[in-house]
Design goal:
heterodimer; A: mainly alpha; MetI-like fold; flat; B: mainly alpha; 15 helices; ABC_transporter_permease (chain A); transmembrane helix (chain A)
Chain lengths: ~300, ~290
């Protein structure tokens, strides 16, 4: 469609502009027009991403406390980060989260999409119930997590109690805190992977599945040999996307552990707040609940 | 040849008899979907019920699944003890400005990248899409410095400016404009209309579905944004709803009915957009990268 459109455009607008003088003027005019359209949005997007990213790199090579004259420091900030055990704690926590969250969210999305891709009764209700958590903010999810997983009054421990299982420490337990965060991330973001898979499933031509059925494939075979290969590119996209999201995990950790944190002496420099002495440290060293609590206790 | 056909037919018969044999009054997928849907619904249901519960009841063990009676006292104390209306107003200002600005700027830029030919177009477009991959943490401190030089820190402007235009929005609108036939615009151009005129009169009216998708995602992103306002706004008068909620979680730690009332108020407007979300055609990206 697009190529057709372009070739038509080339023909109609190209004819009167054969002479070199006019074509230069036309090029300048076209360029100005193009930049006029894209400049306002581009200035904002580039000015708030590529420009600060470059600045972050410059800052990472300096010693600067925000007030004094910045001094060139080479890679000493990086050396500082690498030798900082708290940084490695944060890296490990992030890695645990990534390893748990990325495969689970992609897998859950696939299963949910296959299940929701039917014309059965109540399917609209099922879809709504599974999609609604996606719109819930991290702040709200944080409060909800503290409420549901409260060690004393939380409903999760109550359910365990009813089932005759021992109550768990959840967010107050260093080993379980990340599991709780993974569970709540899955709750909030399964809708995303599901919607993408659902769209991909609906794009698979019905003839393919029909042909497989006629050739005698049962449902499991059809799924493994026909449907799954069609989902390959979407799966790759989702793994990359979820990976990028997971590495950036911050808000849910902040909101879930805030309640716990208030019971303990608060560290002034926990997160991304204000300390500027070594920008790369605070820019990459994400706190995680167990990291915060470990360094405080 | 004939054997394959026969095998196929036999398989078909087999399928049919199997279906007839174990026909339930409903589909077997309900066994999977019903528990899952309930599991997904429980947290929000609990939030809603807790907001309507008497405060004391929520601090008992075992916690009640359903409150003994419904009360609005949580909402009452929320309005008395917090500036929720101010926060709500601030969030409305941030979201509305973001949506309007995103729709205008991103559709202009998306059209420019889709249809206009100019020097630097491809490089700029690749750069803009590439910004989606930059982790937010890298940008926090320099953006803070930049905004403090612009005098935006501690004001609502700090929450608004990053949402004025987004890489996702530009990408979404470009993909949409590429999908509509160029002949329509050619006709307008041949008739002597300017590009701007063609864009506003002919192209934009066709873009309503894409603009709706963009508006929903901008609403969700701007409404729910927490990390950046948390860094940039320290002034209680410029708190957004999310900031207020995250903040008074520490203050009213055990006053669950009040906290949940705040969360219900913060969630209702964005959850009302979820049916639209379901029907929107290209939900590709949940947040600003």
């Amino acid at each position: 469609m697009t190529t057709v459109g372009n070739s038509v455009k080339g023909r109609t607008s190209g004819v009167p502009k054969r002479r070199p003088g006019r074509s230069l003027a036309a090029t300048v005019r076209q360029t100005l027009e193009g930049w006029g359209f894209v400049a306002p949005a581009s200035v904002i997007v580039v000015g708030l991403s590529i420009f600060p990213a470059g600045w972050a790199f410059v800052l990472s090579l300096q010693h600067w406390n925000g007030f004094s004259q910045p001094e060139f420091a080479g890679v000493s900030n990086y050396a500082g980060v690498i030798t900082d055990s708290e940084f490695w704690d944060a890296v490990v926590h992030t890695a645990v989260y990534v390893v748990l969250f990325v495969p689970l969210s992609v897998f859950a999305g696939m299963i949910l999409a296959v299940a929701l891709n039917r014309k059965i009764r109540f399917i609209g209700l099922y879809r709504t119930l599974i999609f609604v958590p996606f719109v819930v903010s991290a702040a709200t999810t944080g409060v909800l997590t503290n409420y549901l997983f409260d060690t004393q009054f939380g409903i999760v421990n109550h359910v365990l109690n009813v089932l005759g299982l021992p109550a768990q420490g959840w967010l107050t337990d260093q080993k379980q805190a990340m599991v709780v965060i993974v569970i709540m991330s899955l709750w909030g973001s399964a809708a995303f992977t599901t919607v993408i898979y659902l769209a991909a499933l609906q794009d698979i031509p019905a003839e393919l599945v029909e042909a497989a059925t006629i050739d005698g494939a049962n449902r499991v075979q059809t799924f493994w040999l026909v449907v799954l290969p069609q989902l390959k590119s979407v799966s790759t996209f989702l793994v990359i996307w979820q990976l990028v999201q997971a590495i950036q995990l911050f808000d849910l950790v902040y909101t879930t552990t805030r309640g716990v944190r208030s019971m303990r002496p608060r560290r002034s420099s926990t997160t991304c707040g204000t300390p500027l002495s070594s920008s790369w440290t605070s820019a990459t060293g994400r706190p995680s609940p167990t990291c915060c609590s470990a360094s405080r206790s | 040849m004939s054997t394959t056909v026969q095998a196929g037919l036999r398989a078909h018969d087999g399928e049919a008899t199997r279906r007839r044999k174990r026909r339930l009054p409903f589909s077997g997928w309900h066994f999977l979907l019903l528990p899952l849907a309930i599991l997904f619904a429980i947290p929000l249901l609990q939030m809603f019920l807790a907001s309507l519960s008497p405060a004391a009841e929520l601090l008992r063990f075992p916690p009640p699944f359903v409150p003994s009676h419904l009360t609005l006292s949580g909402y009452q104390s929320l309005f008395q003890q917090s500036n929720i209306l101010l926060w709500l107003g601030n969030t409305l200002i941030v979201s509305a400005t973001s949506i309007v600005s995103n729709m205008i700027l991103c559709s202009f830029a998306g059209y420019g990248f889709a249809r206009l030919k100019f020097r630097g177009r491809n490089v700029l477009f690749v750069a803009i899409v590439g910004t989606i991959m930059i982790p937010t943490q890298v940008l926090m401190i320099p953006t803070y410095l930049l905004f403090s030089r612009l005098g935006l820190i501690n004001s609502l402007g700090a929450a608004i400016v990053p949402w004025l235009a987004t890489a996702f929005g530009i990408f979404l609108m470009r993909q949409f404009f590429l999908s509509i036939p160029a002949e329509l615009e050619e006709a307008g151009l041949i008739d002597g209309c300017s590009r701007l005129h063609v864009f506003i009169r002919i192209v934009l009216p066709l873009a309503k579905p894409a603009l709706a998708t963009l508006a929903i995602f901008t609403l969700l992103g701007a409404w729910n944004d927490l990390v950046w306002p948390l860094i940039a706004i320290n002034n209680a008068n410029a708190f957004t709803l999310q900031l207020g909620i995250a903040n008074f979680q520490g203050v009213h730690r055990t006053d669950w009915s009040l906290l949940m009332a705040g969360n219900v108020i913060a969630t209702l407007p964005s959850s009302s957009s979820s049916p639209l979300l379901r029907s929107s055609s290209s939900p590709r990206c949940p947040s600003r990268g």
